[in-house]
Amino acid sequence: MSATATEKAPFSTTDSFPLLGTDYVELYVGNSRQSALFYQACMGFQPLAYAGLSTGLKDRESYVLVQDKIRLVLTSPLRANTEIGRLHDLHGDTVRCVALWVEDATVAFETAVARGATPVMSPTAVKDEHGTCVRAQIQSFGDTVHEFVERKNYRGPFLPGYTAWAPAYQPEPVGLKYIDHMVSNVAEGDMNKWVQWYADVMDFKQLISFDDKDISTKYTALMSKVMSNGNGRVKFPINEPAPGLKKSQIDEYLEFHHGPGIQHIAVATDDIISTVTALRDRGIEFLRVPENYYDTLLDRVGDIDEDLSPLRELGILVDRDDEGYLLQIFTKPVQPRPTVFFEIIQRKGATSFGKGNFKALFEAIEREQAVRGTL
Description:
Layout: E1 19-28, H1 32-43, E2 46-51, E3 60-67, E4 70-77, H2 83-91, E5 94-102, H3 105-114, E6 119-128, E7 131-139, E8 145-150, E9 163-164, E10 176-185, H4 191-202, E11 205-210, E12 221-228, E13 235-242, H5 249-257, E14 261-269, H6 272-281, H7 297-301, H8 308-314, E15 317-321, E16 324-330, E17 341-348, H9 358-372
Parallel strand pairs: 1-4, 5-8, 10-13, 14-17
Antiparallel strand pairs: 1-5, 2-3, 2-9, 3-4, 6-7, 7-8, 10-14, 11-12, 12-13, 15-16, 16-17
C-alpha cells in the first residue's frame, strides 16, 4: 500500500472518508506476461500474484507486481470482443484503475455516490481461504475508474481470486518506494470540471495551480492544478492544454490515447542517483535536458547534498521551494504510443512539483515530439 511523503501525518478531519493510500494501479496492456517481465527486469518489481485460466478466469489474465509500497496489476484479455480488449484497442497500454485503500469501502462508496459520483461496481465482498475483502468502484475522467479497497479482514497475497506468483526469475529492486502522485491529462476546458469533481466527490483540496505562464515554451503551453486528499497521501495533478503555436504534449497524449487518462505515475525513491543508475543500466530511457541546464543549477537552487557530476551524467533535475528541494527525472514513454511514462522523484523537504524545471523539461519533450513528427 503506497503513501506519500506525508505518510506519518494524521488523518484530516475534513475528509469525508479518509484514504489510507494508493492500494494498487491496474494497467490494461497488450501482453500482460511480457509486460510483467519488463517491469521485473527493467524496473525492479517483484512478482506477487496471478489470476487467469488456472484460477478460473476465462476472459483475462493479470500479473501483480510489487516494489516496497507500490503495487501494479497488468491485465490483458484472453479472448476477442471483451471490454478490456476494446479499451486497449482504443487507448493502447493505459491506466484503467487507481485503487484507493480505505477502512470501509461501503462507507467510501456510498459517500462518494451521495456526493455525485457515478457508480461502476457496488460494494462487493469477495472471499477465499485468506479472508474477506470488500471492493467498490466509481467512474472518474474518461475510462479511468477509482476502486475503494477494504482489506482489514484479508491476509492473502493480493485479492481473492489471485494466487501467489513466485517464478524463479526475481531480479533485485531498484529502490522505488511508493507512489508520490499521478498526473492526468484532460481536454482543453475540462480541467476545472475535474478539479471540482475531486473537491465535491472525494473531498480533495487544491494544493497548487500552474497557468500557461508557468508551463510554457516558445511553441506549447499547458495548465495544471494539483488536488490532494486531506492527509496528503493521494495527489492528482490535472493537466489541460493551453493554446500555443504547435501541438503540446497534452494534445499529443489526448490524440494517441483517444481521450483523457493518466499521463504519468510519479514514484518516490530515497536515493535517486542509485535508482536512476540502476534503471538506466537495465535499459530504461530518460528524457534529457540541455547540458547548460547544469551550468547555473546551484545558483538557482542553492546548496544541495548531492554532487553535481552524477546529476549531470544521469540527467536528474533539481528544484527548490520554501520547504526544501527535490530531485526528479522522467522516463520516455514505456509503450509504443507516446502516452504513459514514469517520473522518479526524491523529496528532500520540498512539497512542490518542480516548477523551476518545467521549461527545460517541456522543451525536452518537444524535442521528442519533433523526432516523432507530432509537434
